[in-house]
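Chain A, query sequence.
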Amino acid sequence: FVTRLLRAAGGVGEEQLRCFRECLQEAMREHYKHHWFPLVPSKGSGYRCIRINHKMDPLIGKAAGMIGLSHERLFQLLPSELTLWVDPFEVSYRIGEDGSICVLYESPQPGGKAAKQLESRTSCKEEWRIGRSSPSKSYNMMTVSS
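Chain A, predicted structure.
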């Protein structure tokens, strides 16, 4: 998701984006190693929250540093306020403090059907594409995938 945001902003090459994605995935795996609880998905959710809010999230900053992107450049390319929740069985995000929460990925808990990505709905996706820094104050749950 973060890689797609960078791609949409432009100015970062495909090879850099590939490296960024791999570095971010590895940083997240390492960071979440002892904070991933599939039997209690909400446990540790604050620790797994990726946040940009006038400060760059250290995991994103680390991955960007590996491809030579400074925090200043990241602030130009990414939304100034972004919250990404990475939990077992669900990944969701919010752009802006008052934005809608959008679900990127959802899968059933153990014993359910196979994992699936949710169908695309343009509300959340279109808001960040048109450059809106804070989506509407609607707090309804929306879904989005690419």
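The radius of gyration is 15 Å. Confidence is low (pLDDT under 50) at residues 113-146.
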